[in-house]
Amino acid sequence: MTTATLNRLKKAAIKVRGVVTLPIKTYRQLLDAAVPTYYLTGKAATDLDKLVKDGLREHAEGKTRTIRSLADLD
Fold first, then answer.
1. Is the Cβ–Cβ distance between 30 and 22 less than 8 Å?
2. Do the Cβ atoms of 49 and 55 come closer than 8 Å?
């Protein structure tokens, strides 16, 4: 049964032109480096908090709508 699984993995690797095997620690480090983390402070943080609070309030009041594209914003 293990042989069948390994054969399937080998065929899949050939189809996608290779497989990379990494230790979990290295994989997590790569993930952390790929997505930057921003921390806002001061006025920028306050402004963003107010924007989110207002948006959530408007959504709860039913003042928002769902659109499929920016063309629906007329």
1. yes
2. no
Residue 64: which of 54, 5, 29, 50 has the closest Cα?
Answer: 54
| Cα–Cα distance measured from residue 67 to residue 19, given in angstroms and rounded to the nearest whole number | 39
Task: Specify whether the CB–CB gap between 14 and 6 falls below 8 A.
Answer: no
Task: Look at phi and psi of residue 18 and say left if phi exceeds 0, alpha if psi is from -120 to 50, else beta.
Answer: left
Which residue range(s) make up the domain with 34?
2-73
- Apex CA 39: angle with CA 26 and CA 36, to 5°? 35
How many independent structural domains does the chain possess?
A: 1
pLDDT given for residue 4 in this prediction: 58
Residue 2 has pLDDT above 60, yes or no: no
Q: pTM for the whole thing?
A: 0.46
